[in-house]
Every structure is written in C-alpha cells, then in structure tokens.
Amino acid sequence: MANYSKGDVILIRYPYSDQVAYKVRPAVIVSNQAGRHQTFFAVPITSRIGDLETDEFMLDWEFAKLNVPSSIKRGIVLIQTNMVLKRIGEISSDDFAAVRECIAHWLEL
C-alpha cells in the first residue's frame, strides 16, 4: 500500500454521485494517518476558478506541483486507495490551514 499523508495532492478517479462513473481530477488528502488505512478523506481540486464561492480559495498551485491555477472545490469525498492514480505533490501549510477552515465552515463546526 502506498504511503499517503495529510496534505498530499493526489490524482484520483473522482466518483460521480452514481458511484459508477468517474472523472480524473486532483484532490488534497485531509485525513490523519491516510497511509495506514484503505480509505481516507480528500477535498477535490478544480481549475475552474471563475466563480469561486466565498468558502473556496486559490491554492498555491505551483508549490503543490499542479499544472494550472487551481482552487479547492467544495466537498469532502471518501477515497479508497485503489482510486489513487498517483501522488502529485503537497499543499503548503498555509493552504492546509485554509482547507481546514473551509471544512469547518462547510460542516458548521
């Protein structure tokens, strides 16, 4: 099993709501000890940044080794390790703190 960590940017087969079809997209791992489990939580990343919601933000995409300017996409998904195609990079500690704030806002914590 690959050793993934919180803050890693990965390329995943992102499931649609029917859980059958998928699209390939980047995501950031938000689970602690992601490398120790067969499943972990991730937040999707999008390059469609024209209409950012107030609880979404631009990532330091170059630091994260993404190809184009990107932002997080509202939502948390449960990912199985077999859905991961590869590790791309990792987000900065400032970006991870902002992701945590967004998750808390989404879940009204």
UniProtKB/TrEMBL annotation:
<protein>
    <submittedName>
        <fullName>PemK-like protein</fullName>
    </submittedName>
</protein>
<dbReference type="InterPro" id="IPR003477">
    <property type="entry name" value="PemK-like"/>
</dbReference>
<dbReference type="InterPro" id="IPR011067">
    <property type="entry name" value="Plasmid_toxin/cell-grow_inhib"/>
</dbReference>
<dbReference type="Pfam" id="PF02452">
    <property type="entry name" value="PemK_toxin"/>
</dbReference>
<dbReference type="GO" id="GO:0003677">
    <property type="term" value="F:DNA binding"/>
</dbReference>
